[in-house]
Amino acid sequence: MEREEILFRTLEKYLLGEKLRSLTQAGVEDTEPFIKLVQSALQRRKSRAGSALENHLEQVVTDHSVTYTRTGVT
User: What does R_g of the chain's alpha carbons equal in angstroms?
Assistant: First the structure.
């Protein structure tokens, strides 16, 4: 899991850096594009963390032979 996180953060840092550079080089002075970029990155991290939790829980229930539905409605 640590390797996946390191790879994700490395790629994210590169991609966000590229986008930030393009905004600053274009002379964008409005803060809204920067805020949207950061909000998008934070939402992606939250979503990724939620998916990781689902994956871990899936492994736990599978290891204990529990019947489940990953996207079931309760």
Answer: 18
State the alpha helices, DSSP H only, in 1-71. Answer: 2-25, 32-63
CA-CA distance, 16 to 73, in Å (whole number)?
36
Per-residue pLDDT of the chain (74 residues; tens, 9 = 90+): 688 889 999 999 999 999 999 999 999 999 999 999 999 999 999 999 888 889 899 999 999 999 988 888 88
SS3 for 7? helix
Predicted structure pTM score: 0.75
Number of residues assigned to the chain: 74
Within 10 angstroms of residue 56's Cβ, the number of other Cβ atoms is 10
The type of residue at 74 is T
Both tokens assigned to 24: 């600053």
